Amino acid sequence: MPRYDAFLFDSDGVLVEPPTRETQLAAVESAFREVGVDAPPTDHADALAGGVTPARLTEVADAHGVAVDDLWDARERHDERSQFEAFRAGGRTRYDDVTAIAELPPNRGVVSNNHHTTVAFKLDFFDLGDLFDTYYGREMTVESLTLKKPNTHYLELAVADLGAESALYVGDSESDVVAAERAGMDSVFVRRDHNRDTDLSVTPTYEVTTLADVVALAE
After folding, report:
1. Which of 17, 120, 126, 171 is deepest in the core (most CB within 10 A)?
2. What pTM did the predictor assign?
3. In whole angstroms, what is the distance from residue 161 CA to residue 219 CA?
4. What pLDDT digit, counting tens, does each position of 4-41 carry?
5. Would you identify the CATH topology of the domain 6-17+93-217?
6. Rounded to an integer, what distance in angstroms lies between the CA atom of residue 47 and that of residue 192?
7. Separation CA 48–CA 15 (nearest Å)
């Protein structure tokens, strides 16, 4: 009997190159300008470019006298646009080892903290759609911030879609490992250039340097 009956993958940093910090900050600054803030403090721009919480987002919006939903809507649209532009311009691409996923048994999915629309774009742009049976990114809403990994929400949706009982989740961050553990899944931590020296405070089930190594775990 196979060890796993489903294989789930993070997107940025696993299937495709992650966005650069510079691109994220430029998108955030464009969002601030849209809502009338020409020179946001560095810590405010950093907050919106990273893993901002609803509480921190509210603090930032209140500090500038703008509505939370207006600021976040602008942030999401500009962030989405910047990613699409980076892919189309060749500034971001997919990893060569993604083709190894085709060697895995069926029942494969993508679960990402990025926008659902951006995940859909990447799968279409890089012709990866046939590799996966389901995919989830988050909605472009403030509420979705509470559902991001390490929350298990989107992992559980994907597992339900696939009817899996023993899924394996492949990611590139500590939150990926924690989410898998909380969902009762084994995890794979993929070390690439952007996370080569990352020190984890949690222990993944497996650690690899290429997606080709994941194929052996299916046996």
Report:
1. 171
2. 0.95
3. 23
4. 999 999 999 999 999 999 999 999 999 999 999 999 99
5. Rossmann fold (3.40.50)
6. 25
7. 24
